[in-house]
Design goal:
The protein is of the alpha/beta class. The chain is built from 11 helices and 10 strands. Bound molecules: adenosine-5'-diphosphate and magnesium ion.
Amino acid sequence: MTQSPSVQSVGTALLEVSHLTRNFGSGKNAISAVKDVSFSLQPGEIVAVVGESGSGKSTLARLVLRLLAPSSGSIGFLGGDANALSTADYWRDVQAVFQDPYASFNQFYTVQRILGNALALSKERLSGAERERRMRDGLVAVGLKAEEILGKWPHQLSGGQRQRVMMARALMLQPKLLVADEPTSALDASLRVSVLNLLSDLRKRYGMSILFITHDIGQAYYLCDRMLVMYQGELVEQGTVEEVVRGAKHPYTQRLLADVPKLH
Ligand code: ADP
Ligand code: MG
């Protein structure tokens, strides 16, 4: 896969995360799941957030998605404060794909209804025919055949199909940013590469940015332009994937890399 040239930090960032902190619990049980994290993401960029389990990746994703409020710090979106937007407006531009599609679908709804409900978020008033077309286009974009999928319930789909339906649901809204939290970890190894290629393809086609969260530095290397490395809630390293992989400074990053012999 060709890596696109890394984007310089000029112009208006799509996302500007500034000194973001999120604490949980209190007293002896208090922890900072995310500690003073700052980074920016340019339009069209794919940035990885890499770190072991418990390092704060999903908390960061939920903060960026505004599913969780920060204890301190701020999120800028397209030059303004994300909080100045209603969540309904924000979620038209910022969509998510999670690890477990099963948990994020209503299992009593057919795919048609799941996708139709997502389209109801759209600001445009879509006719029935236009809704249908968007659903079909979304499914085609992720390599699914609409006529085979629309009438099915989530339990009738394979894991790979469910993951793709979740991506179709996000894409139908043509978001500017897709936050993908370990989107391949519920999939067989054989499907992982095809999901990574799909994401790369979608970036090329729609120009959207992707915040790609993974515990697998190999996947980050394969897909992303830049890499953020988290360790115990802190952002300990960031740079282009080449910079991080070739010149890892933090001992934790070096350990992560040691687990991926193919990158050496
Ligand atoms: P990762 O996605 O990298 O595995 P998480 O963001 O899920 O990490 O978790 C980071 C830390 O925050 C963990 O110690 C986790 O137990 C804690 N944590 C996450 N969410 C909550 C919560 N809602 N309440 C209490 N602790 C939480
Ligand atoms: Mg997680």
